[in-house]
Amino acid sequence: xxxxxxxxxxxxxxxxxxxxxxxxxxxxxxxxxxxxxxxxxxxxxxxxxxxxxxxxxxxxxxxxxxxxxxxxxxxxxxxxxxxxxxxxxxxxxxxxxxxxxxxxxxxxxxxxxxxxxxxxxxxxxxxxxxxxxxxxxxxxxxxxxxxxxxxxxxxxx
Length: 157
Known about the structure:
The protein is mostly helical. Helix content is 33%, strand content 0%.
């Protein structure tokens, strides 16, 4: 990583500076994330793995990264492989030929890029939801042309 790139990611103390991401958009932390309350329930006894829960401990052993159709569609629209959204461990990129501090710098840069991709995919997923809501026809109330009179005493018994 060059000095100019390092300045974008680290403040003067050398700590990771998340307030200045590379794409000029603030990346929200996990604490700032608001969970989606209107998520559909599990399908056929299995929980859907989406862009908001894919890194949950319950899905570590899952053979799939994502199972939610909207999340998969969002990734496809942005040409992002779901595996690219998984967090990488420092050990995954370690090398004996590279200094540890350089590995930490590269890992931090990769994490910022991953979070930016994740945020873009989440935004695209919300667009998909909005598109689906616009396509959904408004419910129409069927009006009976002959109203029934329940309290009509003129009927013969």
